[in-house]
Every structure is written in C-alpha cells, then in structure tokens.
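Following up on my earlier message about 2'-deoxycytidine-5'-monophosphate. Here are the inputs again, as you asked, copied directly from the submission form:
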Amino acid sequence: MSGAGGAGRGGVIAVDGLAGSGKSTVAGVLADRLGLERLDTGAMYRAITFAALRDGIDPDDGPALTELARRVTIEVEAQVLVDGQDATVAIRGPEVTGAVSAVSSHPGVRAGLVVRQRAWVAVRGGGVVEGRDIGTVVFPDARLKVFLTADCDERARRRALEGAGTGSSEELSRRDHLDSSRQASPLAVAEGALAIDTTGRSVEDVVAEILERLMASETAGRPATAGPAEPPATAGSPGPDPGARTAILELAPGPVARAWYAVASGLVKVWALACFRLSVEGRENLPVAGPYLLAPVHRSNIDFLMVSTVTRQRVRFMGKEELWKVAALGRLVGSLGAFPVRRDKVDRESLRCCIEILANGEPLTIFPEGTRQSGPVVQELFEGAAYVAARAGVPVVPVGIAGSEAAMPKGAKLIRPVKIHLVVGRPLWGQAQGKGGPGPSRVSRSVLRQRTDQLRVELQKVFDRALELNRR
Ligand code: DC
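Thanks, got it. Here's what our run produced:
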C-alpha cells in the first residue's frame, strides 16, 4: 500500500502500541504540545466494527466488511459518528471490543481505512496519528515513530480505570495476540521507532522523552517540516466549519453503483452524440493510471455531463447540497458521481472532500472558473483546483468545451441541439503513477498562484482549439 502513502508524511508523528499502553493519552498530550491535530485510528476500526454489528455482518465475512468499510461514513473527532449516528460510547463497549480484532484483520477493511487515514493527513499536512500499523504501513516515512508498551497488569489496570469494561488482562492478551499474529499489517515495532515502556512512568515523563527525541533528530539534520499552504480563499470561503465532516464520502463505488454508472453514463453518451454530435479530441492525453483532476471551462449546466464522456471511469464532481434534500434526486446525481457541497460556492470542507476522492483513486472535475461564465475568454481562475491537485499529488488536465453555451446558456430552460467539441489538453504537473499519483506535495501560495496562471493559459489554448473545431 504505497500509493497514497506519502500523504503529508513529513508532518506525521506515528504513535503505535499495545492496548492500554497509554497511547491515546500520550498522543493527545503530544498533539497539544506540537499544535497538531490527532487521529485515533483504533476508533476508526471500532467504528467499522460498530457498523458491522449494527448491520448483522459476521466479523469473519471479509467481502461484506470490505464493502462496508467503503461505504460507511465515519467521523472521528471529539465524538465518533457512524453514518451520522453517535457511537462514541458504544465503540468502547464489550461487543465492539470483542469483535474489533477480527474485523480489523481483513485486508479489505484495512485498505479502506488506510485510504481515509492518508487523506486525513493529506488535507492537514500532518498530525499525530495513533494506532497499530501507523509507523510500519500507513506512514513508513513518518517524521517520528513511537512504539509504546507497558506490562500486562498495568495495562489492565489502566483500562479498568478508564471504565473501558474490557480491562481484564486475559482480554488484553487475547487482543494483543490477535493483533500481532494477523497476516495483514500485524502489530509490530517499526524500523527506527522510539520504543518506550511506560510502566510506572507518568504521561508527562513519556511525552518529554518523545519531544526530546524529536528535537534531537531534527537538529541532527532532518529538516523541520515546513507548514503547508493554507487552503486558498475560494469564492465565498467562510473558513473551516466547526462541525466539519471529515469523511462524508462513499469512498468507492460498490458493484451496484458501478453497474448503474455504466448504464447512466452510456445513456449520456448516446444522447450527447445524437443531440450535439459530440466530438472529443485529445482523449489520449488522459493519464493511463491513477487519479487526475479535470479542469474544464464552464459555460453551461450540461458541461459536467459532457466532461463525463471523456473516460469510462466515474468522474466525481460537486453538487449543491440542496439536491440531496430530495432523496431520489440526491441518489440520481450521486450515482452519476456528484457529491454534496454545503453551499453553491466551494468551501474548505469541499476541498477536503475533493482531496479524499483523489486520494481514493477516482478522477474528479473542478471548474476552476467557479460559476458559469460567458464568451470565448477564460475568466480569472480560483486557486482551488491547483491546491487540491497539489495536496493530492495528481495532475491537472485542462478541458476546452465549445458549443455548450449555445446549447444551454445561463438562464435557458431548454436545450438546443447544436454541435459540441471537447478538447482534452496535456496533464500539468506530473503524470499520475497509480493510485495516489506521484505523491502529494506542499506548495507555497506563490507556487499556487503561478500554477493557476499557467492553468489559465493552457485552458485558453484548449478552449481556442475547441472553438476552432466548432467553427469548421
Ligand atoms: O487502540 P484501540 O484499542 O482502540 O484499537 C482497537 C482495535 O483496532 C485493535 O484491537 C486493533 C485495531 N487497530 C488496528 O488494527 N490498526 C490500527 N491502526 C488501530 C487499531
């Protein structure tokens, strides 16, 4: 699983260890001291287990659990929400604790959650990530890796004090054994990890040792990580939402969604050919593997449908959240690849969703001009497209669309059958090399501006070419 593995790796502090070793407490204090956010990946495995028990899925049924791990929505913050339901308390209960090792042993479940963990880091540029396989598998190039242990009696005592209801040393030993002996990403000390036995030591003491090691390794030559560029201001950007959703997405289409998409997109193609004699030039420019961002000009409501015809893969795009208020409509546009954004303008949470989608390997459309424009000149671009592509480490493919404005301009209710030409340009900023692309990078605001200017130039070229083809 090395595809998206570089997600913000420079800024990750990996805290792995045994149940009851003090991981969560240490990770929390460490995150506070470093001013970073913290991700409890154990809570994510518990959340999937909660959903499996809720849906009556057998903890040994790998395929069903893999499918579940793709579609369930999980928010792990102060509260843990599973498909919007508060599971903060239940995930710590004996039923979930008893089944979590079995559920987390399935490679498909792990793959689904690792994608989300890397996306979590990709959007933040770093963080304290605690779990069992963070230093070994999820972020093998973490800035610092820590592995915590404690003797079994002390761990059982701590769990009992936490009121975990799962504190017996037999239960802990059973879970340690299952977690260490499973085939997929077994619990192990990562190479180069700082191993600390926390038995009899205070949290402060342990955190102090970790910080000391961090400072020592960074002054010894490893560069301190530069802060990532803030998400660029976007039209109407309101700043982060306090209750922002971290994972609202169905991360990969299941078999039914895939079949439905094939049917729906087939119909769109037939319609586009019959109604607009649609032609596409430059399809060979699309990256052959891995996700990418399509950046088309925007002149009409039908643009996203036209763009979807350039590839057989499902192309994701943003839809106004209001569409999902009518359940059937939400399902329909969702099946065509749309995902909800809160306002009709792009906000930071939407940018996070975009990065998550790309990190998961799906292509995505962002109209860099923002809303629909008019005429043959590419208008001022928002920096969101360049930002998302850089954070996810994927190329941007400019797309010119000529004729869609004549077919259905702003304000029109009816669609006119006129000729439409699409021109796909060369990918900018690297060729994707498989799931996750060439690797995320941190770019400064000036680079973002520069890339956005370059995109505007390239977009104008493909737009001019499409207009020329349309005039012939
Ligand atoms: O840290 P915890 O006890 O809440 O974790 C619950 C279970 O989740 C643990 O028994 C194994 C699994 N887990 C995992 O397999 N990989 C991780 N990165 C985190 C947890």
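One observation from looking it over: Residues 1-10, 223-230, 233-251, 431-438 have pLDDT under 50 and may be disordered. Hope that helps, and feel free to reply on this thread.
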